[in-house]
Automatic annotation (TrEMBL):
This is Hut operon positive regulatory protein. The gene is hutP. Antiterminator that binds to cis-acting regulatory sequences on the mRNA in the presence of histidine, thereby suppressing transcription termination and activating the hut operon for histidine utilization. Gene3D superfamilies: Hut operon regulatory protein HutP. Keywords: Activator, Histidine metabolism, RNA-binding, Transcription, Transcription regulation. Homohexamer. Belongs to the HutP family. It comes from the Bacteria. It comes from Chengkuizengella marina. GO terms for biological process: L-histidine metabolic process; positive regulation of gene expression. It holds the Pfam family HutP. NCBIfam families: PRK03065.1.
Length: 142
């Protein structure tokens, strides 16, 4: 089992997120981008899940797909919150852009599909100008 060097799903998710243009992804992969700003981590999860379902990245009727997405989101949230998932309860707010990428990063098709969630934006006290940049990435198998 080896990753294809041009099929790094996390790298593609980050490039898609940070680029103004669409990034060059394998044709068989699915992706989308969105934005969310909140003091509630549940709203971040809901925004990403809604975007994934509305753009056909996951099928909301198939548990393993939404479950894999959920774990990728939680892993990415750990990155932006430095391991502490609390935001509003500790008086922090976020303004984030996100990307979601689904595909098979391996040479063998039998390895199946994976999903990556990338987050980039700001986090800080709910006072304009007191935030700093933050970034997170979560990858999970479907």
């Amino acid at each position: 089992m080896s990753l294809q060097s041009d099929h790094r799903i996390g790298k593609h998710a980050m490039l898609l997120l940070l680029s103004e243009d669409e990034c060059n992804m394998p044709d068989c992969w699915k992706s989308c981008k969105g934005k969310v700003g909140t003091m509630d981590s549940q709203k971040i999860i809901a925004a990403i899940e809604t975007a994934a379902k509305n753009n056909g990245i996951v099928d909301g009727d198939i548990y393993r797909e939404t479950h894999a997405l959920y774990h990728a989101i939680i892993e990415a949230l750990h990155g932006i919150t430095r391991g502490q998932l609390s935001i509003g309860s500790v008086l922090r707010t976020v303004g984030l852009r996100f990307s979601i990428v689904r595909g098979n990063p391996y040479e063998k098709q039998q390895e199946g599909e994976w999903i990556a969630v990338a987050l980039y934006g700001t986090i800080g006290a709910p006072i304009k100008g007191l935030e700093h940049e933050t970034m997170g990435l979560g990858i999970n198998h479907i």
